[in-house]
Amino acid sequence: MRRIMVTLIALLALITVASGLYIKSVWNPDMPSVLVQRVQTRANAHGGYVQLSKIPLFLQQALIATEDRGFYHNHGIDIEGILRAMFVDLVQGRLVQGGSTITEQLVKDMFLTDRKTIPRKLKQIALAIMISRDLSKNQVLALYLNEVYLGHGAYGVGQAAKVYFNRSISNLTQAQCAILAGLPQAPSLYDPIHHLSLAKTRQWEVLKSMVSAGFITLKQAHQIDVAPLHFISTS
Description:
This protein is mainly α. The chain is globular. The protein contains 11 helices and no strands. The mean pLDDT is 86. Helix 5 packs across helix 6.
């Protein structure tokens, strides 16, 4: 265990230095605007960009509680999460953990690949830090909610609301929001159309995370859990 801890500290120091060097080498003041343009272009091709003010606060909170509890307090990366992921990777002897914040997921989706390699992770960390320096948290959250893939060809929560429920995003119920918030991790696995039981299990995990984060009470979670979902067929 001591050897693993020493290795973790050394790796974290290496990541810090490497990320700093990468930021310095690729720093581009236009990067935030490039990101915004790419997301808006994709969103316009899939039903249109949705302003954050149109997205239910409940859905925003559900996503944050599930994907990145420290979103409003971190600087684009989660040091504790990185250490935890590195620990698992060292124990397993291979890259298996992601440990990604919402900001990291955003830059990965728009600029990088899904390959689990150290260079790609370093780039992801560096880009997340760069974006966090120039965009507000609300801007980052809005961009992510408009580009995240949620299954059945739906990119962004606006299109997903139509695909799964035939509703505008602003008219989603809390139960429906909780379903969507559980999809980013594995859209196919938690597909509520074809795997409703797994989707409901994931929905409850989302609701429990919201309780833990202080967004809702346990009583409210149980009430939302049994609420009807009113799916539409995607066939």
